[in-house]
Design goal:
Length: about 210
């Protein structure tokens, strides 16, 4: 079986269990793991679309109106702090024709879609939609960009796409048990610098 053919058989991924074997018996992951679209799709489905994902520090969303837009494996999302001080995350997809509404990062009062000018508040809720007054059954007040789950631990901000994933505290519990037993709480962490890296098929930023 060629490496490429093996990658198309998702069950082949189970062979990777040998990478987690004790060191004397462990094997390197096959090279196609790093390039096969099927593996990337499975990673996206099983990890990125279900796990809680670190997206930044609370200091980066310090003031009401602070926001950042970015993508997680092609999925556009935005994180913002609303005027009441709460953090929010939502799918950055206009409810009209699917254009990305929020771009870059900064501080804003509202967000305006660049395509037809629908405007949204800092939580992703629709405020105004020009030329829709006469559209039957359409009520601006019932429309918003899809909210995502958001949580913080020790000033670290996480988002989650999956409503069925356990709460953040539960999700982190096993990791926290080992780190807090060593005396580290993460409470003193602060952003020092940021770098951005981009690779084919994925991009990420770290603070
Ligand atoms: S696509 Fe956003 S206003 Fe039309």
């Amino acid at each position: 079986m060629s490496e490429r053919k093996a990658a198309s058989d998702v069950s082949a991924i189970d062979e990777f269990a040998s990478t987690g074997a004790p060191l004397q018996r462990a094997r390197h992951a096959p090279g196609y793991v790093y390039t096969a679209p099927e593996v990337l799709a499975r990673e996206k489905d099983k990890l990125f679309m279900t796990d809680w994902l670190f997206v930044g520090r609370v200091e980066e969303f310090d003031r009401p109106g602070d926001y950042r837009a970015f993508r997680v494996l092609g999925e556009p999302i935005a994180v913002s702090r609303s005027k009441d001080g709460q953090l929010h995350a939502f799918a950055n997809v206009c409810r009209h024709r699917g254009v990305e509404v929020v771009t870059g990062e900064g501080n804003a009062e509202t967000f305006s879609c660049p395509y037809h000018g629908w405007s949204y508040d800092l939580t992703g809720r629709l405020l105004a939609a020009p030329y829709t007054q006469d559209v039957e059954g359409f009520d601006v007040r019932n429309c918003r960009m899809t909210p995502l789950r958001i949580g913080t631990w020790a000033g670290n901000v996480f988002v989650c796409f999956d409503p069925g994933t356990p709460p953040l505290e539960e999700f982190l519990a096993s990791s926290l048990a080992s780190s807090t037993s060593s005396g580290w709480t993460g409470a003193d962490c602060r952003p020092s610098s940021r770098f951005r890296s981009t690779a084919t098929g994925s991009s990420s930023s770290r603070t």
